[in-house]
Request: fold
Amino acid sequence: MCSQVKDIVSIRLSHCRAERAASEGQYHLAALHYRNCLEAAERREDSQAVRFFALRLAHCYTSMGLSAKAQAFADLAEYAPAQPVRRRPDSDAPAGGALG
Reply:
């Protein structure tokens, strides 16, 4: 649990740094911080956060004129699952699955 809290705090700090850099037009720096956030979201298997940070990266790369990279991150956001498959702690079946 403690490592999850530290991870959330580090994601939040990176997100704040990225937002500030983007607001100042420092898109290379913003992309660096958003990439850290995206990687942390992927480790946490948080599909909503993956979509959010992928879209933020797409915006940064668009602003830098790197349309191919922007499209790659836009595609990642589009194909990230809407909700992760949650498993019951005592089973390999999905949480909504039958109890059998």
